[in-house]
Here is the input.
Amino acid sequence: MTMLMPAEGVFSLIWVLIALPLAGAAILLFAGRRTNSWGPYLGVLTVLGSAVIGVLMLLEMMQQPADGRTYGQELFTWIQVGGFSADMAFQLDQLSIVFVLLITIVGSLIHVYSLGYMAHDKDRRKFFGYLNLFVAAMLLLVLANNYLLLYVGWEGVGLASYLLIGFWQHKPSAAAAAKKAFIINRVGDVGLSLAIMLMFVTFGSVSFQDVFGVADQASEGTLTAIGLLLLLAACGKSAQFPLQAWLLDAMEGPTPVSALIHAATMVTAGVYLIVRSNVIFTAAEWAAIAVIVVGLITMWMGAIIGSAKDDIKKSLAGSTMSQIGYMITAAGLGPIGYVFAIFHLLTHGVFKAGLFLGAGSVMHGMNDNVNMRRYGALRSAMVITAGTFIVCYLAIIGIPPFDGFFSKDDIIHASFERSPIIGVLAMLAAGLTGFYMTRMVAMTFFGKARWEDDVHPHESPKVMTIPLIILAIGAAFLGMALVYWGDIESWLEPVVGFEENPLPLASWVYEATTLALVLIGVAIGWIMYARREVPVEAPRGTVLTRAAREELYGNQVNDVLVVQPTHYASRSLVWFDNKAVDGFVNGSAAFVGGLSGRMRRYQTGFVRSYALSMVGGVLLVVLALVLVRMS
Amino acid sequence: MNPSNYVMLSAVLFSIGALGVLVRRNAIIVFMSVELMLNAANLAFVAFSRMNGNLDGQVVAFFVMVVAAAEVVVGLAIIVTIFRTRRSASIDEPNLLKY
Here is the structure.
């Protein structure tokens, strides 16, 4: 357990990191239309401010010795009930700072890009307010020093995601997608809240320091339960199998949202949760194995879906699922993988944001059409977009020396260190990545133009292309920089641990094999979608293609397993309510009514019969008294 | 004289009164029967008062007389009013107050 350093100097500004975008969100959302003209710029500035503070903190942290880089800042006691207490307190360490920089820097670029992308939207003030809210919640998530505060951020990003997916809520599909994302995320959130309760019951505390300090004293069964619940939470937030169905629909949101929330940051919160809880997963072997299995399944599902979708954003969303599958797999590998999960998360955050923003730029020039079958030959119409997109493409498929080569190869290495089966699966999925990304690039930028009649593709304004260029530079050099100059392994090692197992073969063999597989995928993609004519109408395709277009029937499975049983149960309850509950109430009322209907027949209006009944009653009373006396 | 004879007489009078209320149709006769029952009760009270040697029963008998007088006032007024509207003093005929 590393020692907590007091937050002094630049580190006393930890709370400002969150407060800045939160204040931005509050001003934009509460001050109303008055801020319409300058509000969006304020939204950009708050995130930029956080980014500057984040960079200063990184520079300061690098001056410190490796075991003195964990800073704690306690604002106030948040909840104090009996033996339970949770503080509004932050923890900044090597892991958090990496996230802070990813969120604020990529977030700033996407905010700037949105200035151009949303320029003509009448609600763009609200859009920037929501984006700021998201950044604040995400920073809270990664800076919290206890699970309960993390949960607040976790729900906050879920809320922001819901608001932004449904930003164009006049479209029924967007409103439905927002609800779907929110509801599926609830399932994962239940997992997280149960995990927190179980932690409190077991350890008596929910702060990272306390939980990780005494985690090894709990039984393995408890730790496995906590691990599996945390995995459920991660599955919901990171769109992992079996809670993956919401991510593809989430593409209904504006493209910068897809780039920031559904590619770079929020969907990787699950990876953060698992890596942050590394002590628990290292101790609970079966939970870690479940993590690997989930990661591998999603890695393949995402890649297969990405290979068949014609909607450029949904194809990218499939790719995001697949790449997060890599990270989750790496996070399940234990100390050999945690570092690489975060490394890939970082590089993926940069190049996938670049890809999404590139896709947004393409859509901007194509009247918001997302169907890649109506693209083609766009490389000369939008040079900068095409160039940056291709750099990010080289990064994601892992061509040296671009980002993905370093981060993904590290994960494949670590997989082979654990087991050849995991390694081979991860390696083959890399080949599939090469195929679907080549398909996307070939259909969009190469081949023949298949544009609709009234479309005049054009390059986007500078406010959109400059963030693209910066992200492309990041996609080209970040991986190299982190490996050769930043030394990411020893940077994260104090927080997440790091060890290396020997590999049976020399490491260049794995790299060469992966590269060969990727190139085969690229070649197949290129022959199928650049050399051959791409039909405007999608051909029927094989069974696998049709299944992949249907998102591998994930929605149908949910429908059969959850939606329909729920409908059936609620209809049964309605029946029970109508027949049994109402039946009892109405029945007793009818009984009393009927009885009194009969009883009033005795009110004959015939005075002497009343008199007779009175005499009879008196006689009965007297008789009773006499009998009581005598006995 | 044995006081229980008064009680016997009271019981006989009460029974005659009750029977009169049940079987006679003329409202005036029914009324008289009610008076007979009340006075039977008075007789019983006085007899018991004498048997027990205190005045409680006699006090109650006075109360009953007062109640009976009030009852006669109200009851006769009702009977007269009914007779005026219906030209009949039968108690079986006014039977509108029913289900």
